[in-house]
Amino acid sequence: MPALSALPLFGSLPPWLLLVAGAAVGWLRNFWNWIYSHTLGQLTQRIRVSVTIEEYEHAEAWLWLQHWTEKRLRSRKIAALSLRKVRRQRNQPESPDEGADDSSYELLPAEGVYPFLWSGKVVVVNSGKEEGTAEGGGGNRSLFVRRRMTVGIFPTRCRGLLLQLIEEARKSWEENHPSAQQYYFHRWSYWSSRPLARRSPSTVYLPAGVFEDILGDARQFLESQPAFEELGVPYRRGYLFYGPPGCGKTTTVIALATALARPLYYLSLASVRNRDDLASLLDGVRPGSIVLIEDVDCVSAAVERMNHQGDPGAKPGELTQSNANQAQDRLTTSDLLNQIDGVVASEGRILIMTTNYPENLDAALVRPGRVDRRWEIGYPATEQLLRFHARAVSLGMTRDTTQDFLARLGPQATIASAQTVIFQSAWEARP
User: Fold this and answer.
1) Which of 116, 95, 117, 119 is nearest to 107 (CA)?
2) What is the CATH number of domain 201-376?
3) What 3-state class would DSSP assign to 409?
């Protein structure tokens, strides 16, 4: 592109005049912005209410409003759309709004400004996104995308209309997604969600009465908030599931969330950078939800108990200056305990920790008040394995007799190994 001075119109003008003209244009633009913000802008602010929803902070509300906006704009046949992957639950029927050919994807409005009428008011939806990088584990930097949406209503100053609009969006979402129970996972300090792959309690092969005991305790807790408040004790519940790998600890958690129809939050302590991220994550958990921390024995949060390996003179439990520098941005045991059962701890949730080695856990982490009930989910007994085999036979997945099935398993079998045997048997039986 040629410079302005190379153009015929500007080539004959002196440079100082071009500078003055540029400064004048900039001044006029700023002056116009000032005039607008103190006149029409002020008037607009006085006759409207608005709310901004960040996807990483309020994922569900953001998704409700995206779908609600798309439905309001269908008659206008907008061309600017974005594609979103739909992760359906098993046996989940298609939404009435979706065709048979687009069961794996859905269309949502792209970033932009969308005005339309609603309840006799003008609604303006302004959606956009912010891209950047953030430091992750090991000092690596990763790209992140944060989407946000601002919803404004004109002309009104009634905040209740915003809540009414969000409630209408929620109901519209639930009508079209009746089975949408959410599973939350996090990246740094914010949650993302997708539909939870439900697990029927009938597919959990624990000893007789164990799952019913867990479910009964959880239901009693969720129904007992007034009793906790009257006693003046924190409204929280903690469980510990322990036992060998592959025996069904995670499956039990998913089945419990399914039976209670509660959201499930998966908290990976290994990817939590510091106390602020942990506080932000737990503060964002909805009341009445289940929070899962898997393999808690594999997470080294006890930084203040570490020996400094580079200092041969360091005593056990001594925090040297070098070690302190390493620990500045790491999660400590104190941080974890304070968020689970401290002054700043959130309430109204069930925290479930799983471990293969309960003897390795810090005693302060599993004391009463932080872990209220413990269940061992160990190697399944023959009766549990036969229940699993009988279900596979009823579904036509295997023709093995019980004797053949047990012989294939060998000693210390788990439900995971039994599953492998069943599928291997089914594949070998194929012509």
Assistant:
1) 95
2) 3.40.50.300
3) helix
